[in-house]
Amino acid sequence: MSPIDLMVFDLDGTIVDSSPDLIAAANFTRLALKLPALADEAIISFVGDGLEKLVERFLGPEQKHCQAEARGIYREYYGEHLADKTVLYPGALEVLKFFGNKKKLLITNKDRDFTRRITDHFKITPFFEEIIGMGSTAYRKPEALILLPLLSRLRIDPQRTVVIGDGVADINLAKNADSKSCAMLNGFTSRATLLALQPDFACESLWELKGILC
Length: 214
What we know:
alpha/beta
């Protein structure tokens, strides 16, 4: 592969395991609306395309009329509990330090306020040139325009960029931007779904990035 000058990381399911807090917020919202709780696996399968899509999916089409109320309930609850049980994935801090000489971005479809609060909580904000969340731009993953202006500003060739994430949107972002992709198979999306997208690389853990990108 060509040398890598820029590493673009996803957040949920890649750097942090936020699944317990995302599940708790979704089911709190459903219960507040007098709806039954959903299975953990179902809720996690809805994550990756931003808060509005998450709420829309865990409510279902039959509850379309209360989506705005649900978003308000979810946002308030999650804002108060976003780091209750969220943890860094094993090796996350070590890998960010190991690649200290590489430029790094964090691009997520999570709200930028929630994103920054989590990166500040775990003291990883300084590792990134920029942190882009929902609301930072008019675009979201997998749209190439969420990444290409940053590559231009940093003067980095897309071919010398790798997008690292556990979601379909991450792999497709890399393809849309003509960059490399690295699927994290230990995140929220099923292995089969990610591998079917034929990413350039696939890892069982963040530790493996040391062997792939060096």
